[in-house]
Amino acid sequence: MSGISLTFGGDPVFSGLDLVVQPGDRVALVGRNGSGKSTLMKVMAGLVEADQGEIVVPPGKSVGYMEQDPGMEGFATLGDYASSGLEPGELYKVERAGEGLKFDPSRPVETASGGERRRAALAKLMAEAPDLMLLDEPTNHLDIEAIAWLERELGATRAAYVLISHDRAFLRALTRATLWIDRGMVRRQEQGFEVFEAWRDKVWEEEDQQRHKLNRLIKSEAKWAVEGISARRKRNQGRVRALQALRAEKAAQIKRQGSAAMSLEAGPKSGRKVIEAKALSKAYGDKQIVRGFDLLAQRGDRVAFVGPNGVGKTTLLKMLLGQEATDEGSVTLGTNLEIAVFDQTRAQLDPEMSLWDSLTGDPEMRVSGKADQVMVGGQPKHVVGYLKEFLFDERQARAAVKSLSGGEKARLLLAKLMAKPSNLLVLDEPTNDLDVETLDLLQELLDDYDGTVLLVSHDRDFLDRVATTTIAMEGNGRATVYAGGWSDYIAQRGDLAPKKDEKTKAPKPKVKQEAKPKSGLSFSEKHRLEKLPAEIARLEAEIAKLEELMADPDLFTREPVKFQKATEALVERQEKLSAAEEEWLMLEEKAEGG
């Protein structure tokens, strides 16, 4: 690619871009949602025409692109689409890819879900085996087993590939170079995603230093101009022009997009016991979802559900929330629960509705008599101001939801979710399409959330960062509770994982939430231990401020409401501090014992 320039809606996406992909390259393409990753990939695939520049593919070399929303008109089944263009002797490649990616080639196109269509598009690309594969979020809608299959296939291929993904573990395992799109500039580093974040932070640090130097130079030159220009007007017009050039350089700098200002609005504290399930069993015909399943989820737990697609994770979630009837057993929900749900299908978003109406039209967010405001955490906010906190601009406020990228839809759904107080958060595949920075922020929010979290995800890295308990659903009614996240589950599982040729008969699982590693700290416990000192220091500082406020002897008579709120806040923070100190001591003792 030489001198590539592209403009959408008056704003340049790329300008004068030069880029080379070599044979055998294994490249991670990273950047914030909306930075132009998918657009660049479509330009590389020849699906979007650049305004200027040239793209050269050497003779005899082929480029293949995995379409996000493949057009399947004229094909009766997914298999017909995936095998189109292949020679008869190569059809076995589609069958093999179909087994690894878990899609049914006989599925009629008209009844296939979006996820099934994407898996068929991925199978088609893998079967065609071009010299360069362009893969845009290939792990979306894949379960962990299918992701592992794809990881092995890409690890063994001799083809080059450029890969967009939010799955850190996937990127770390496969990439040897990184392309980073940032404010229209594409940088390349000859190292994989493993070192990307350190590289990004170093680039930004150097940028901040240069900006600081430029600001100091402008300030110095401006002072000279004010104090000395009248005496040296004729001789120093060049210096004045240089000052104007410095100011123009500063104006031309593109400000980095900040992080979304997301915050979870905690509702009233729930009871200590949140969900208690005893001897749950559920089947649909011959398909057993769970058998004899027990679980005790308490306030503050982060419970993750993992397993193959179709094994029944969402069904078990609904049973635990009382939304789905059980065949046997009982579910008891705790007291004072306020539930918020992040739905993987984005069903809460009307594609034809504007972002503005999507928020103001929500009965739980509507502000009576105010068409331009939404209720956020009990306080009214202007709808555009709230959208800006989630990195949407004013022009997008009136745009239709269907015009958003997958990551932007996820951010809009988070905006709706986080405006409402909750103490039980249900996240069904929240990581799909989110960029790495937003995933980091979401993880930090979940760490600080006072309530309980139920999480379904196939993102191994995110599971390790968030989960304190993992429920592994391995088919045939087997659902086993393990302490910790994904890595902890794998370490504890041992020979419990069912083999491919294992009989369908499965013993009744003995599940106890108290299951813990034999020694040492789990991944999530280590992460928690690292965060606790800062949390304790923050609570101590807040307590000191509240005690200073309440030291005013006239506060009670002068502002009784303020005194009451300060008293309640002080009691709450003292309880949190006590709990945090107790947790720190427990984890320290466990770490020393391990």
Provide an overview of this structure.
By secondary structure, the protein is α/β, with parallel strands linked by helices. The chain folds into five domains: about 1-200, Rossmann fold; about 200-250; about 265-340 and about 420-520, P-loop containing nucleotide triphosphate hydrolases (Rossmann fold, 3-Layer(aba) Sandwich), CATH 3.40.50.300; about 350-420, no CATH class; about 525-594, Orthogonal Bundle (Helix Hairpins). It is built from 19 helices and 21 strands. The strands form five sheets. The chain has a six-stranded mixed beta sheet, with helices on both faces. A six-stranded mixed beta sheet has the order 14-18-19-12-20-21, with helices on both faces. The protein has a three-stranded antiparallel beta sheet with strand order 2-1-4, with no helix packed on it. Strand 16 and strand 17 (about 380) form a beta hairpin. Helix 17 packs antiparallel against helix 19. The chain is globular, with a radius of gyration of 28 Å. The two termini are about 55 Å apart.
Features:
alpha/beta; 594 residues; Rossmann fold; six-stranded mixed beta sheet; globular; 41% helix; 5 domains; 21 strands
What's the topology here?
Blueprint: E1 2-8, E2 11-17, E3 26-30, H1 37-45, E4 52-54, E5 63-65, H2 78-83, H3 91-101, H4 114-128, E6 132-136, H5 144-156, E7 160-164, H6 168-174, E8 177-182, E9 185-189, H7 196-228, H8 237-252, E10 273-284, E11 287-298, E12 302-306, H9 313-320, E13 328-333, E14 339-342, H10 355-360, E15 366-367, E16 370-376, E17 379-382, H11 383-389, H12 394-397, H13 406-418, E18 424-428, H14 436-448, E19 452-456, H15 460-466, E20 469-475, E21 478-483, H16 486-493, H17 523-550, H18 555-558, H19 560-593
Parallel strand pairs: 3-7, 3-8, 5-6, 6-7, 12-19, 12-20, 14-18, 18-19
Antiparallel strand pairs: 1-2, 1-4, 8-9, 10-11, 10-13, 15-16, 16-17, 20-21
